[in-house]
Amino acid sequence: MSNGDAVSITPALAAELRTYNVTDTRHLLPQEIFSWQHLLTLRSFILLVVGGFLVGFGTRYAGGCTSGHAIMGLSNLQWPSLVATICFMTGGFVMANVLLPVIMKL
After folding, report:
1. What transmembrane ranges does the database entry give (predicted)?
2. Euclidean distance between CA atoms 19 and 21, whole angstroms
3. CB 3.0-4.6 Å disulfide test: which of 26, 29, 78, 91 passes with 73?
């Protein structure tokens, strides 16, 4: 339950968010990302439409979702699930550390 106080983040995180054009750090959901006026921007298009397509394509191509492969497939010692989980994790690391900072600066 919220007490009405502003969200408190470290100055280092606030400085990093400013490099991604996110300056509203008073709320839990920054207005530069989570608002109706920013919904029809290039950044939102890439994150929503292209991201949604890639999730659907990856799920179909890998023959299942991330949790299905990582939990059930690995517990059954299935080689394809190990390969799929490694690819999911690698893709997540690349997206979070390489592509997302570039997209956020658009």
Report:
1. 45-62, 82-103
2. 6
3. 78
Whole-model pTM above 0.90? no
Q: Are 69 and 5 in contact (CB under 8 A)?
A: no
- The answer to whether 25 and 9 are in contact (CB under 8 A) is yes
Dihedral of the CA atoms 55, 87, 90, 78 (nearest 10)?
120
Closest to 66 measured CA to CA, from 92, 93, 95: 92
Distance CA 12, CA 18 (A): 10
Residue 30 has pLDDT above 70, yes or no: yes
Q: What is the domain partition of the chain in residue ranges?
A: 1-37, 40-106
